[in-house]
Amino acid sequence: MRVLIVEDENLTARRLEGQLLKYDPSIEVLAKLPSVAKAVDWLRTHPAPDLLFLDIHLEDDLGFRIFEQVQVSTPVIFTTAYDEYMIQAFKVNSIDYLLKPVNYDDLVAAIEKYKALRQHFAAPDLSALLQLVTKPSEQAYRDRFMVSIGPKLRSVEVSDIAYFFLEEKVVFLTTQQGSMLPLEYSLDKLTQLLNPRQFFRVSRQYLVSLGSIDSIHTYSAGKLRLELRPTPRHEVFVSGDRVTDFKDWLGR
């Protein structure tokens, strides 16, 4: 079986590849692609794979956009962090799904389903799904992240995250308990993935949760200084050009 993985989180893509090979060492992972643009280019220049694993949110756009730019008849298994309402939509449209972090038994079940039904698969009709995903009132946000700790993987609930910060070109999350863990996302990407009612990008270096803010102090040049819990390694400021939006966010 020839498989294409379209996933912008490198750790997740590598883990999925490992799980596929555990299930069947003869599976050939043709490529691991992080964006709509790269997936479209690959699909235009290569024979169609037998099965496509597709993340919903890629680094440049929604994964669905691939099907607007290139004809794809390959069966699709989505990897998603959507809630149960969205999961029902996938079921209705006869497209299988895997919740992140991907559970091995769920992966096996999805592949077995594909094998049983592959003769009846056609190109997916994604219009209804695209409409659901792009409705602001029904926007789904990440509720967990997979992080690498040495040779181990750990799932961290968003509700347990106090803030994210950038240091020496690496993004870290800090948990409510003070654990600092590296993450394979940019702060720009995290801003898209997280609920804007719960998190705010206060500066180029920090993305903070509402619950982490202990106190707010006025500072020079129109900035605000934040005291966060747990205490960060550096002082945290709300940039002057973000102060108005920050105050609006606090007042929601």
UniProtKB/TrEMBL annotation:
Molecular function terms from GO: DNA binding; phosphorelay response regulator activity
Question: 4-aspartylphosphate: which positions carry it?
Answer: D55
Q: Which SUPFAM superfamilies match?
A: CheY-like
Keyword check for DNA-binding, yes or no.
yes
Transmembrane ranges?
none
Q: Which InterPro entries match?
A: CheY-like_superfamily (IPR011006), LytR-like (IPR046947), LytTR_DNA-bd_dom (IPR007492), Sig_transdc_resp-reg_receiver (IPR001789)
Keywords, comma-separated and alphabetical: DNA-binding, Phosphoprotein
Domain named HTH LytTR-type is located at 145-252
- Give residue ranges for domain Response regulatory: 2-115
**Which superkingdom heads the taxonomic lineage of this protein's source?**
Bacteria
State whether keyword Transmembrane helix applies: no
PANTHER family the UniProt entry points to = STAGE 0 SPORULATION PROTEIN A HOMOLOG, TRANSCRIPTIONAL REGULATOR-RELATED
Q: What is this protein called?
A: DNA-binding response regulator
Where is the organism placed in the taxonomic lineage, from the top? Answer: Bacteria, Pseudomonadati, Bacteroidota, Cytophagia, Cytophagales
